[in-house]
């Protein structure tokens, strides 16, 4: 059997609950009302019986043994004033009626037989008897003379038909009330249903449920981890990737405090400040993570915060391999180019008939190249960075520029705390700028010195050259996109360096002196929110 739509189930449940509540409340109220009304009728006939049996005229009439016309008229007026009283009769010890509000029954014997107990001295009581006018609810009270002797009784009753009619009237009122309440229930259910639909952005609950499931499947399919919190710091969203990155055994429940799952999170800080944080590098459970933290703004107020993060460990490894391969190729191209040049020099010596110079040239060149490669690989043990430096050393050497590595430089693969392509991009651009600057000089010393110091909690990169220096008027502009002294279409390298340093909360320091040279030093630490900036001296 096909399951009913969710909105149909909600609507039916609401109606059923309303009907059940109405029936229960009205049932209890009806029972209470009927019992109360019955007790009220009993009280009426009791009070009437007590009042009439205590009238002196009643005892006098029974002692005389003759009905009184004047008394009967007064009794008729009294009976008319009594509510819910159908029959009043006064009888003597022989059950002969001396008064009855139906005059045709005066002088006749009382019918029913339930008066015997009262004539025998019983306390006043109420019975369900049957008289001349039909079934009745009767109250009996004895009438005594001045000596306490029973000389008759009073019977006050309400007909069962009157009770039934009163009950029907009450039932009718309650039925009408039930119909009104049911109508209001249907109306309120309709209003609530439309309100719910409005809250659900116009979707039916079943449609919204389907959309929610589909979107959750999409979120779980993403490689990016996502979790969000409300203003109380409680989890309102988490996808499967976030669960894996955080190494959680089971999917946490809605409302779980994020700090219990991930105590180091800074998402509550974003919630408090209302300021987003982008491209934050951090480590979670030994994984290199890049995170964006964004506040959720609703009607101008912060309603929560969401963190979107990516596991960069595998991507970084692949990028490092690809980057290393690229610089290896460039290095091989540079070596090939240099090899051709050396061959041309050797060929020239042979043509000139100077074979002894060929031997000296080969020995000196081989020693220089071997020494350069050996020094770099000894200090720099990250292959992609070493390949970059070797390539740059060879390229600089071809242009008559001496490029060396500072003796205290050190770079181990196990010490890297930032992506290797970050170091390659920064060093590559700085060295290339220095090479181009020195290549434009026609005279003077042409030297570049590169320093690389990387340890687990930080790193320092430096590139010094003996170029013409940067004029003071240009120093504030060198990191602007498109600014260059080398012509149009240039000026992107230093802008890129500035962007990368800012993203990883580093510091750029520049010292420059005209006709002496320029020095760039870039420092990174593990402090996530280290203030970045440029410091110019010179």
From TrEMBL:
<dbReference type="InterPro" id="IPR000014">
    <property type="entry name" value="PAS"/>
</dbReference>
<feature type="domain" description="PAS">
    <location>
        <begin position="216"/>
        <end position="266"/>
    </location>
</feature>
<dbReference type="Pfam" id="PF14689">
    <property type="entry name" value="SPOB_a"/>
</dbReference>
<keyword id="KW-0067">ATP-binding</keyword>
<keyword id="KW-0812">Transmembrane</keyword>
<dbReference type="Pfam" id="PF02518">
    <property type="entry name" value="HATPase_c"/>
</dbReference>
<feature type="transmembrane region" description="Helical">
    <location>
        <begin position="12"/>
        <end position="35"/>
    </location>
</feature>
<keyword id="KW-0418">Kinase</keyword>
<keyword id="KW-0902">Two-component regulatory system</keyword>
<dbReference type="InterPro" id="IPR029151">
    <property type="entry name" value="Sensor-like_sf"/>
</dbReference>
<dbReference type="InterPro" id="IPR005467">
    <property type="entry name" value="His_kinase_dom"/>
</dbReference>
<keyword id="KW-0547">Nucleotide-binding</keyword>
<keyword id="KW-0597">Phosphoprotein</keyword>
<keyword id="KW-0808">Transferase</keyword>
<dbReference type="InterPro" id="IPR036890">
    <property type="entry name" value="HATPase_C_sf"/>
</dbReference>
<dbReference type="Pfam" id="PF17203">
    <property type="entry name" value="sCache_3_2"/>
</dbReference>
<feature type="domain" description="Histidine kinase">
    <location>
        <begin position="334"/>
        <end position="528"/>
    </location>
</feature>
<keyword id="KW-1003">Cell membrane</keyword>
<dbReference type="InterPro" id="IPR039506">
    <property type="entry name" value="SPOB_a"/>
</dbReference>
<feature type="transmembrane region" description="Helical">
    <location>
        <begin position="170"/>
        <end position="193"/>
    </location>
</feature>
<keyword id="KW-0472">Membrane</keyword>
<dbReference type="InterPro" id="IPR003594">
    <property type="entry name" value="HATPase_dom"/>
</dbReference>
<keyword id="KW-1133">Transmembrane helix</keyword>
<dbReference type="InterPro" id="IPR033463">
    <property type="entry name" value="sCache_3"/>
</dbReference>
<dbReference type="GO" id="GO:0016301">
    <property type="term" value="F:kinase activity"/>
</dbReference>
<dbReference type="InterPro" id="IPR035965">
    <property type="entry name" value="PAS-like_dom_sf"/>
</dbReference>
<dbReference type="InterPro" id="IPR016120">
    <property type="entry name" value="Sig_transdc_His_kin_SpoOB"/>
</dbReference>
<dbReference type="InterPro" id="IPR004358">
    <property type="entry name" value="Sig_transdc_His_kin-like_C"/>
</dbReference>
<protein>
    <recommendedName>
        <fullName>histidine kinase</fullName>
        <ecNumber>2.7.13.3</ecNumber>
    </recommendedName>
</protein>
């Amino acid at each position: 059997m096909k399951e009913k739509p969710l909105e149909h189930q909600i609507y039916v449940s609401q109606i059923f609950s309303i009907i059940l509540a109405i029936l229960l409340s009205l049932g209890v109220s009806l029972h209470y009302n009927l019992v109360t009304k019955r007790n009220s009728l009993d009280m009426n006939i009791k009070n009437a019986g007590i009042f009439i049996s205590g009238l002196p005229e009643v005892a006098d009439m029974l002692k005389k043994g003759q009905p009184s016309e004047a008394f009967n008229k007064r009794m008729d007026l009294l009976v008319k004033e009594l509510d819910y009283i159908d029959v009043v009769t006064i009888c003597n010890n022989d059950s002969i009626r001396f008064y009855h509000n139906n005059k045709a029954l005066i002088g006749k014997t009382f019918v029913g037989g339930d008066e015997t107990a009262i004539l025998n001295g019983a306390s006043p009581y109420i019975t369900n008897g049957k008289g001349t006018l039909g079934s009745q609810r009767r109250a009996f009270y004895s009438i005594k003379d001045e000596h306490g002797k029973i000389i008759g009784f009073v019977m006050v009753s309400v007909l069962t038909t009157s009770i039934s009619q009163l009950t029907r009237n009450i039932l009718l009122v309650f039925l009408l009330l039930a119909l009104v309440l049911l109508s209001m229930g249907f109306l309120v259910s309709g209003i609530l249903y439309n309100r719910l639909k409005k809250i659900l952005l116009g979707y039916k609950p079943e449609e919204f449920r389907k959309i929610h499931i589909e979107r959750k499947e999409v979120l779980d399919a993403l490689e990016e981890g996502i979790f969000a919190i409300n203003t109380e710091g409680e989890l309102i969203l988490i996808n499967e990737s976030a669960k894996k990155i955080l190494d959680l055994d089971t999917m946490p429940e809605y409302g779980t405090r994020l700090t219990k799952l991930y105590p180091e999170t800074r998402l509550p800080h974003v919630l408090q400040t209302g300021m987003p944080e982008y491209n934050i590098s951090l480590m979670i459970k030994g994984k290199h993570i890049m995170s964006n933290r964004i506040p959720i703004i609703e009607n101008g107020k912060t309603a929560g915060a969401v963190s979107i993060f990516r596991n960069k460990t595998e991507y970084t490894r692949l990028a490092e391999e690809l980057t290393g391969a690229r610089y290896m190729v460039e290095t091989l191209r540079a070596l090939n180019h240099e090899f051709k040049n050396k061959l041309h020099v050797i060929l020239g010596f042979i043509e000139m008939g100077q074979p002894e110079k060929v031997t000296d040239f080969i020995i000196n060149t081989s020693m220089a190249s071997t020494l350069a490669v050996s020094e770099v690989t000894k200090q720099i043990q990250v292959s992609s960075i070493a390949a970059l430096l070797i390539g740059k050393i060879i390229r600089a050497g071809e242009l008559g520029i001496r490029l060396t590595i500072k003796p205290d430089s050190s770079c181990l693969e196990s010490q890297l705390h930032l992506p290797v392509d970050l170091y390659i991009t920064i060093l590559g651009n700085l060295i290339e700028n220095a090479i181009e600057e020195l290549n434009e000089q026609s005279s003077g010393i042409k030297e570049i010195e590169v320093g690389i110091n990387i340890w687990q909690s930080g790193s320092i990169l430096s590139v010094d050259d003996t170029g013409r220096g940067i004029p003071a008027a240009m120093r504030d502009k060198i990191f602007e996109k498109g600014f260059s002294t080398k012509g149009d279409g240039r000026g992107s390298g230093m802008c890129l360096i500035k962007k990368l340093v800012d993203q990883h909360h580093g510091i750029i320091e520049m010292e420059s002196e005209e006709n002496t040279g320029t020095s760039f030093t870039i420092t990174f630490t593990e402090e996530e929110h280290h203030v970045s900036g440029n410091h110019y001296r010179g």
